[in-house]
Write a structure and sequence with these properties.
ten-stranded mixed β-sheet; binds 6-O-phosphoryl inosine monophosphate; single chain; binds magnesium ion; binds guanosine-5'-diphosphate; 21% strand; 20 strands; four-stranded mixed β-sheet
Length: 429
Amino acid sequence: MKADVLLGLQWGDEGKGKIVDVLTPQYDIIARFQGGPNAGHTIEFDNKKFILHTIPSGIFNPGTINVIGNGVIIDPFIFGKELENLKANNINAENNLLISKKAHLILPTHRLLDATYEAAKGKAKIGSTLKGIGPAYTDKTARNGLRIGNIIRVDFLKKFNELKEKHLRIIDSYGFDYHNYLLDGLTFKDYEEQWFAAIEKIKSIQKINSEYFINQSLNNNKSVLAEGAQGTLLDLDFGTYPFVTSSNTIAAGVCAGLGIPPGKVGEIYGIFKAYCTRVGSGPFPTEQENKEGQKLRDEGNEYGSTTGRPRRCGWLDLTALKYSIMLNGVTLLFMTKADVLNSFEKIKAGIKYKFGGKFIDHIPFEASYEKLEPVYHELDGWQSDINNVTNPDNMPQQLTDYIKYIEKEVNVPVAMVSVGADRSQIIKL
Ligand code: GDP
Ligand code: IMO
Ligand code: MG
């Protein structure tokens, strides 16, 4: 078997968690391959809502194994809270959850470093989720990191303290007052205490060499879905650098983040919202800082799953979508949050940019620094409630037209349209 991949094509929060949950019954294994608790993946069913940060979104199907791959970085404190929340809802994640021994740890001081660097950047800040992502991946690439497999080794505490002291020296050199900085409402000392308590919990979860596990599973005809976090436009190399995350969010990240050879990657499912959002700083050409943007935010309840920050909102950007499709080799598209456009009289889609006095249909290097002016194609809205539509024959003509227009522009079929947050609110085309 080959491993399929599901990932975001915009700036994250495309609804990946919901779609993974919808697809999970078709898969034996769901595996996260990158990112960490900067992710917030929402799943809703039976009037319950869960937000997962580290644990794969297949966890609600007892028959599916969930793997946290080597490319993921884990904050034991946050991970422990996720386990607790699931347990409080009678879901024992331990039964079908495996963690790669090679996944790196986010230390409490990685979070302090994140806050230190962001504060030092002032107005130029990335708008990070402040979960320690950049500093933890930095230590990984600088070959200083601690991994999940280290926690049972006799020298773990010594290594932890060495790294912590090094971090604190950097933090002190910036003059950052970490004693008065709260981490998820806790002082550094209390956070560290709970971080270590959570390490004990991780000890009882099965830890594996996930590259062997995944490859053996594929050889034994088990189906695997790799779940992405963040989105293509936040990719470390191809996103709107420096306003990006610190991992490769694109399909190529699956090979490095799970140990799957390129030839064993199958379908690539690309998720995009019917419009566009971004949380944090950085360029966003089709952003609407006006009534339309506010309406998208209100109708779409566009507030961050991880930080609660209001998301910036705007129209679909087809140039960016084509770029993402190219980078990932997307074979099937899934459009989410179509229902958010229910009451819009007109819907717009950016088709090219005006830049330096010319029209362009690609994203230039300068896009990270200078403003691209989008040119829009306008379509009629459906102006009706589609939240309960599940049969494609009952879709309003204007919605069909919007989808057909997107398919024609990007040359990849749309396989599903999501029309609400609940698991059941989906139209299979
Ligand atoms: P992810 O990070 O890609 O998993 O996405 P998030 O969970 O951060 O953000 C998506 C938000 O939209 C969540 O609150 C979801 O419950 C919600 N959502 C997902 N699909 C739909 C949809 O089709 N319609 C509406 N209205 N909400 C949706
Ligand atoms: P999911 O998986 C949306 C954004 C942050 C910030 C930038 C860098 O839920 O789609 P970081 O914490 O990585 O240092 O932040 O990336 N960001 C996300 N935006 N969804 C996410 O994840 C994100 N993860 C990071 O807002 O702009
Ligand atoms: Mg999210």
